[in-house]
Protein: Tetraspanin
Organism: Characodon lateralis
Amino acid sequence: MKTNMLLWLAEPDQHNVAFIVTPCNAFLLQFFSIILVIFISEVAAGVVALAYSSFAENILRAWATPVLQNDYGIDPMVTRIWNTTMTDLKCCGFSNYTDFMGSEFEDQKENGLPPSCCLNNIDPCSPAEAAHLPVQGCFDHILKILREKTITVGGIAAGVGLLE
């Protein structure tokens, strides 16, 4: 038993134009409903990414310094990530070399710092040497990259939304 719905697009006595909703048209209606939900989600993600990028600073500060203090030099994954970050960005610690003071890593290295804290990656790098060098913390570099990527992600979401 097949049921169809008639939707009149004009008055019946004019040209008798009607649109029959068939199962195929119902699938199209479902498809466009799903596309609408995806579109709204993309727009919402773009707005959230652009609006809340200022919270990234607080999240980074709350996460990075304790990780450097407690896990750097102990957890191989954390150590590898921070070494790569500090080497690629040519920086030391999150704020500066003092992030390693009182850390587990400093205890292991007997007042030593990671090689990236000194120019030319000198190992061992002492806090006295690092204090006199212009090596900065990674925070400003990471925040700059994060803001650039956030704008890109927000722009892509807005562009895809407009395209849809």
